[in-house]
Amino acid sequence: MLWFLLALASTVLYSVVNISDKVLVNGYLKNPLLGTIVCDITMIPVIAIAFLLSPPEILKIDEFLMLLTATLFGIAGVLLYFKAMQKAEPSRLVVALQSLPLFVLVLAVIFLGEALSYAQIFGIISIVVASILVSDGKLGKNKWALTAFLCSLLWAMEAIITKYLLGSIDYWSLFLWSSFITLSVYAIALPLYFKELRGAIVAKPRLLAFGFLSAGSYFVAYILELMALSIRYVSLVSAIGALQPFIVLALALMVSKFAPSLFREAIDRKSITIKVVGALLASFGVMLLL
């Protein structure tokens, strides 16, 4: 049950990330790379302090190369994610990203030898079907959907490598080294976009607040996810993330009602009915996982 609570808390925080990122690309930044840079540079002091207070273990060469590969997969996925976020409502984009559990399930069986019961497999499929249901049948009409599916595949490959590394590396060290690699990549890219980024910050300094909210939520969510992965199958942990569309939808509705200047979520009676049915189906799927 602990793995489930950790994975659920992680999913809630990832949903906060989605909302913050939509605000960033909707009102502050148009370049998807700038979105990733803004979010992560706000975390440099936090990660630096974490390195000093609780240094990670030293990695072997093969472990570092595998982690580097996984992190680059993750960064590529993030760039595609921000690109898709420019075109889609957050609730619909997150639905498209729910292909992630299926990619993880297939890769985990092939590369990690994970064995799941028929009930658990049906639970994963139920959650994913529920997530697709809330798209209201419009995913195929949007080009951003393909971008989201490719993003999910890259993140699935990152998750598989991460799960493998957790067999020899503790989750805290994995988190710190992965964060270090990520921040280093963005630091290298920063000079190329410094003028554009400085102009955006000077014009709209509030973007740093949303960047910090996004990055802070992401890093905490990632730690919780690693903790869940260290004690349970990667396919099951990733499946809990399929509840994210419903959390994002609830947050998006709150933003639309109380802060409509940030962005508006298009909701009608038909889509609400479909999403309620999807939520019930997803809840049934989660029960099968436990």
**How many β-strand stretches?**
0
User: Which overall shape is indicated by the principal axes computed on the Cα atoms?
Assistant: globular
Proportion of residues in helical segments: over 70%
Strand content: under 5%
**Count of helical stretches:** 13
Indicate the multimeric state: single chain
Kindly describe this structure.
By secondary structure, this protein is mostly helical. The protein has one domain. 79% of the residues lie in helices and 0% in strands. The chain has helices at 2-27, 32-41, 44-53, 61-85, 90-96, 100-112, 118-133, 144-165, 171-203, 207-229, 234-240, 244-258, 269-289. α2 (32-41) crosses α10 and α6 (100-112) runs parallel beside α8 (144-165). The longest helix has 33 residues, at 171-203. The model has no long low-confidence stretch (mean pLDDT 83).
Q: What are the key terms here?
A:
290 residues, mainly alpha, 79% helix, globular
Short synopsis of the structure:
It contains 13 helices and no strands. The chain has 290 residues and is mostly helical.
Topology:
Blueprint lengths: L1 H26 L4 H10 L2 H10 L7 H25 L4 H7 L3 H13 L5 H16 L10 H22 L5 H33 L3 H23 L4 H7 L3 H15 L10 H21 L1
